[in-house]
Amino acid sequence: xxxxxxxxxxxxxxxxxxxxxxxxxxxxxxxxxxxxxxxxxxxxxxxxxxxxxxxxxxxxxxxxxxxxxxxxxxxxxxxxxxxxxxxxxxxxxxxxxxxxxxxxxxxxxxxxxxxxxxxxxxxxxxxxxxxxxxxxxxxxxxxxxxxxxxxxxxxxxxxxxxxxxxxxxxxxxxxxxxxxxxxxxxxxxxxxxxxxxxxxxxxxxxxxxxxxxxxxxxxxxxxxxxxxxxxxxxxxxxxxxxxxxxxxxxxxxxxxxxxxxxxxxxxxxxxxxxxxxxxxxxxxxxxxxxxxxxxxxxxxxxxxxxxxxxxxxxxxxxxxxxxxxxxxxxxxxxxxxxxxxxxxxxxxxxxxxxxxxxxxxxxxxxxxxxxxxxxxxxxxxxxxxxxxxxxxxxxxxxxxxxxxxxxxxxxxxxxxxxxxxxxxxxxxxxxxxxxxxxxxxxxxxxxxxxxxxxxxxxxxxxxxxxxxxxxxxxxxxxxxxxxxxxxxxxxxxxxxxxxxxxxxxxxxxxxxxxxxxxxxxxxxxxxxxxxxxxxxxxxxxxxx
Length: 544
Known about the structure:
This protein is an alpha+beta fold. 52% of the residues lie in helices and 19% in strands.
């Protein structure tokens, strides 16, 4: 661009010089007479003219001058190389001094490039554009010569001049620079994507670690469900989902918890409702995937709308399927192919593995705990757990000033029954008594097998009178049992009951147990199959 400005300035200076000469002289004849009379001035003028011609001829910039009639009056070789039609016009001209007009040059160059009907209009438009040139630079490509920056401007004489600077190399450098810039931008994008992936990986690793830590800290399955409900929305913010766990009967899965929803999608689902459970491996659903939605997922999409993308992952514990993790992605555009990102799927699988391990551990812990507090034959609480529960209940009831009742009962003549009918029949009787006890008490009461044929019932928030009534109802229910064993019915079974209350014996567990035992022995001594209430005098007599 610097060369262009320099050349234009030089031409303008020369033109101004001629204009200034014209203004100083009264006429062209006077100027000629002056030059002819001063040979040194004429020689100097011719020398300057040849210098200018040489400069224009050797210039890499194309230069041309047209007069007010658009007749070419000067052009350097660079201009002629850009317009091969110019040489052809001169070659075919009979008179080598024939005038060449811009319109003839344009017409020759456009011949064959535009239709014959549009040729003259195109020529006229180009001629008009040159006549009203304003000096604005435009870029133009010349076939076989590369790219040029062209600038045309008007002269004071009414003619026009134009220069064209070869910018092919500059354009190539710009192209190379753009290519390098694109490569750099792509490398930056890859680096940013890699950095973001690393950040995401670290975040997922931290979240998995936290999930595993919380899950392993859970002492019960219910606590585990709370952790899943709280942490899954943080790990999958745009998701909805549920965790289902097999029921004890193994014929249905119960909804254990959900996230980012007000309620469970299903309270229960059948194993056959899920393709993942049928196939025994993860199943994902979405547009572009060759699959069909699970029956339990059909409700996830509003009526008339497509089921959102989702993934179902079986929850395994020690090789057995114990549940199902269902995660939906309603915010994902399901019209996109493979809309479930592989990274998200891998993360979901890792979360499912953590939950599977935690469920297995929690279930094992629950089983061990139940084994430690339950009687293996009847399923009732054992003596150790009963005593722990009794201490807790007595302490709380004492603070709240609420009454607690205790029933101690024993199967009558059970040793003789075992000797006559066998221990298997005796086990059936014990189980029947246990079932009758559970049916006769409230969920807040505690029933335990103390050992052998001895049982105990702790009645929270219950006075001694009410406890005695409850004992009588239990005695009558057991006496009315018809217990089948083998192909027959066993003889009637009865129990003796002793009742004691905190209103008479205070909130010391050992004292209450001792009072109930004394009342139980009195019931047996007075004929069995009856209920006796402990009195403070009984304790005093027995102590004496």
